[in-house]
Amino acid sequence: MPLEFPGREDPLLDVRDLFISFGDNAAVRGLDFTIRRGETLALVGESGCGKSATALSLLRLLPPAGRVAGGSIRFEDRDILRLPENEMRRLRGGAISMVFQEPMTSLNPVLPIGRQITEAIRSHERVSARAARARAIELLNLVRIPEAHRRIDDYPHTLSGGMRQRVMIAMAVACRPRLLIADEPTTALDVTIQAQVLELLDRLRQDLSMGLLLITHDLGLVADWADRVVVMYAGRKCEEAPVETLLRAPLHPYTSGLMACSPKLASGLHFRQGRLPEIGGSVASAADVAGCLFAPRCASARDACHAVRPDAKPAGSRDHLLACPVHAPADYAIACC
Amino acid sequence: MPLLAVESLETRYGPLRAVDGVSLRIEAGETLALVGESGCGKSTLGKTILRLVPHSGGTVRFGGVDVARLRGRTLKPFRRRMQMVFQDPSASLNPRQTVGTILSAPLRVHGVHGRIERRRQVEAMADRVGLPVGGLVRYPHEFSGGQRQRIGIARALILRPELVVCDEPVSALDVSIQAQILNLLVDLKSDYNLSYLFISHDLGVVRYIADRIAVMYLGRIVENAPHHSLWSRPLHPYTQGLIRAVPGQGSPGRPNRVAPIAGDMPNPLDPPDGCRFHPRCALAADICRVNDPPLRAVLPGHDVACHFASA
Amino acid sequence: MKSLGLFLRNPTGLAGSSLLLLVIVAALLAPVLFPGDPLDMATTPFIWPLQDPAFPLGSDSLGRDVLAGIVHGARVSVLIGFASTFVGVVIGTLVGACAGYFGGRLDDLLVRLMEVFQTFPPFLLIIVLVSIAEPSVATITAAIGIVSWPTVARLVRAEFRSLRERDFVLAARGLGYGAARIVFLEILPNAAAPIIVTTSVMVATAILNESALSFLGLGDPNLVSWGSMIGAGRDQLRTAWYLVALPGAALVITVLSLNLFGDGLNDALNPRARGR
């Protein structure tokens, strides 16, 4: 009998055994995760771990070189990978919407921001130009752009990076999406602006009871804003847990290595007192590995790790999934059989 | 005598005063971190000190000599003593040259004669920064981001400089690679007795690497303090906000979800009157709108430019 | 090299380079294949092509061998085409590099100079220059080269202006490299791709210009050229059209091959087009 995973009962988004490849290169190699309504799931990993490819595949927006090579993506009762293109188009920017990393290039430089928002609205709903404009002003107010009624006719280049990202968010939530995908939404922004933008995203998540998929490389952001976390390495899930569990007791050596090696304010470590813990090597070492993809960089790898690729299984509690037999608690082997 | 003493330095790009009257000093063997958000002028300040961008006022004394006045042949020996590590290793390495050429050309230009001698020095430096043997005949794009930054560091150190300006040297790198590069920079500092001017927006990194921290806002230094003093008692409201804005400082179960500083960076072409931070400052009073506070020592070695800062 | 592999897999580039190779081999082998002066009378006049196996492309009004003329004409075309382009590229690269790298007043001055040259219709300028001097291979080469350099200079200037802002150039300055080293060893190799691509089109233009000069009778009178053959044949256009068509076809094939070659190079060298 299959195990009952929490969140599997009625997920908003259910991704199973997803494979994505770019030519001969596998970007994602068998990924499972779910997002519930009103929840923030963080997809964490470094460049090349497949997190952005995963995000794009949810909207079927992979670049021409990339393709979903296997698995399923269910959004509510729809099978995303089998949906006809016209229905998919309705879904994008409607029920599922996305905020990108680079607010400089994601807005059209020759159109006023108001035009871009009203077009986003009118491509999904039949409303008059005047009503759409009123909605656009409302949205700009919602994302806290000061003097929205004046700013609506401004061009993107007159806005700061933080303002542009707010406009992008306004466009993304214009049709009250049920799932918002935010791909490194604050990476291009300054730290004081970053906090403002995340605060905004989180408030919108609550107000619109959206599922929020937060894609980031920054564990600090995850700690502050996520409900649950999926840690990815080289296209695979290493560990998945509620954020508190993960922060208190990370099990996978990659997760704990990542948490230890990023210099933190709170740790108070200074170079004259000691070295930073390192994860040796680089992700390139995962290219042709038969076993665990992290094994070439893992200090506690055993012979078996190089031979058998572990799957993520419950460890300790049902909502804590781990793909590492070496660092597993005692009940791990029992739970997986 | 400090290794580097910058006095009232000014750099303009047309009407923009990117660096607007900055004074700072770096002692031999010290790491000074320059912290601030994009557009605050920290990178321009670093490049002005290295004479990569022309200054429009003030002095840059390096070993007692004002390098801001030097030109051509008299400047060249100082180039050797002050070097730079760039943020983006893929943009700062010539894509058409092999790593061997990139590392040996500085030696050739600075009069290290003999192919064999240059080769010996290049191989020793490549080995020291952890580049693979045999990597010298390859091109930069054949390396990973972290390896490329090692090449950039080797190039900066091959001339045995005394001061290295590191401009966001780890911000383009993956988190797991950052620690490797930071540890390398620390090791090299003690091996070669280096001083660093470490430019970064990442306070976590700065917390680890810096002996002294200067915080910049809109072309000015607003706070300058030794590390123990700055982290335990940040005095400027901007510094306090920056520190609180760093994510991940809550404890598990009690996340930190506040934006400590409201508003946006003002247009640097038209900076606010009085204190430049006053439109975003929670403490701002009438005096802040009128009077520009000077940098003054409030604690020993701890300078701050705020009307309300006190020990 | 990766670029070479890409080039050889590109049908356009491959077709262009094969045709071009044919023209160059013909030019090189001309004295072996057709010893003797192609301007001498070899047979009876007005033999049509494919009539006499000894003269497969026939003879002209003076009984000269048309095939020998075309093969020897390839020599002149190829020589002047490449030599004048070399002159133009060297001058253009030097001027463009100085203007682009140093900027400021020198840039203003050099840009004005380019504009002065570009305000003249280029062919008129070539005629003026050749008429001042005695027409010979050397003077024609110089004239075409002098007219073509501003094109290269503009291109090189634009490349240098963007490349000089790159971090690796800043790094080179910080390492104390001299201007000459930065211009020639750091920046120029990065600007090489567009220069090479333009060069192939410039060779084609130079060949056309040389032909036009010779057509007008302003070429070197002691050498046979496709242009002079067309010029000489135009009086017999109604009676013996092949005298114009055959050298004309040689010209078209050569220019076409250079353009195809250039397109192929562009696809192989242009990094933005790669990645697809």
Can you offer a commentary on this structure?
- The complex is a heterotrimer of chains A (337), B (311) and C (276).
- Chain A is an alpha/beta fold.
- Chain A has helices at 51-58, 85-91, 103-106, 113-122, 129-142, 148-151, 161-172, 191-207, 219-225, 243-248, 253-261, 303-307, 332-336; strands spanning 13-22, 25-35, 40-44, 66-75, 78-79, 96-99, 179-183, 211-216, 228-233, 236-242, 313-315, 317-322.
- Chain B has a domain at 235-311.
- Chain B is globular.
- Chain C has helices at residues 2-8, 11-33, 66-102, 104-119, 122-132, 137-163, 167-174, 179-215, 226-233, 242-269.
- Chain C has 276 residues and is mostly helical.
- Chain C has a single domain, classed as Orthogonal Bundle (MetI-like fold), CATH 1.10.3720.10.
- In chain C, 73% of the residues lie in helices and 0% in strands.
- The chains are: A alpha/beta (337), B alpha/beta (311), C mainly alpha (276).
- At the A-B interface, helix 7, helix 8, helix 9, helix 10 and helix 11 of A face helix 6, helix 7, helix 8 and helix 10 of B.
Strand content of chain C: under 5%
Largest sheet of chain B: 8 strands, mixed
Radius of gyration of chain B from CA coordinates: 21 Å
pLDDT < 50 stretches of chain B: none
State the end-to-end CA separation of chain C.
Answer: 19 Å
What is the helix fraction of residues of chain C, given as a range?
over 70%
* Low-confidence segments of chain C: 272-276
SSE topology string of chain B: EEEHEEHEHHHHEHEHEEHHHEE
Number of domains of chain C: 1
Number of helices of chain C: 10
| Terminus-to-terminus distance of chain B | 28 Å
- Give the strand line-up of the largest sheet of chain B: 6-7-8-3-9-10-12-11
* The named CATH superfamily of chain C: MetI-like
In DSSP terms (H or I, runs of 4 or more residues), the helix count of chain B works out at: 11
The residue fraction in helices of chain B comes out at 25-40%
Let me know the number of strands of chain C: 0
Secondary structure: elements and pairs:
The complex is a heterotrimer of chains A (337), B (311) and C (276).
Chain A: E1 13-22, E2 25-35, E3 40-44, H1 51-58, E4 66-75, E5 78-79, H2 85-91, E6 96-99, H3 103-106, H4 113-122, H5 129-142, H6 148-151, H7 161-172, E7 179-183, H8 191-207, E8 211-216, H9 219-225, E9 228-233, E10 236-242, H10 243-248, H11 253-261, H12 303-307, E11 313-315, E12 317-322, H13 332-336
Parallel strand pairs in A: 3-8, 3-9, 6-7, 7-8
Antiparallel strand pairs in A: 1-2, 1-4, 4-5, 9-10, 10-12, 11-12
Chain B: E1 4-13, E2 16-26, E3 31-35, H1 42-49, E4 57-62, E5 65-66, H2 72-81, E6 82-85, H3 89-92, H4 99-109, H5 115-128, H6 145-157, E7 163-167, H7 175-192, E8 195-200, H8 203-209, E9 212-217, E10 220-226, H9 227-232, H10 237-245, H11 286-290, E11 296-299, E12 302-304
Parallel strand pairs in B: 3-8, 3-9, 6-7, 7-8
Antiparallel strand pairs in B: 1-2, 1-4, 4-5, 9-10, 10-12, 11-12
Helix pairs in contact in B: 4-5, 5-6, 6-7
Chain C: H1 2-8, H2 11-33, H3 66-102, H4 104-119, H5 122-132, H6 137-163, H7 167-174, H8 179-215, H9 226-233, H10 242-269
Helix pairs in contact in C: 1-10, 2-3, 2-10, 3-4, 3-6, 3-8, 3-10, 4-6, 5-6, 6-8, 7-8, 8-9, 8-10, 9-10
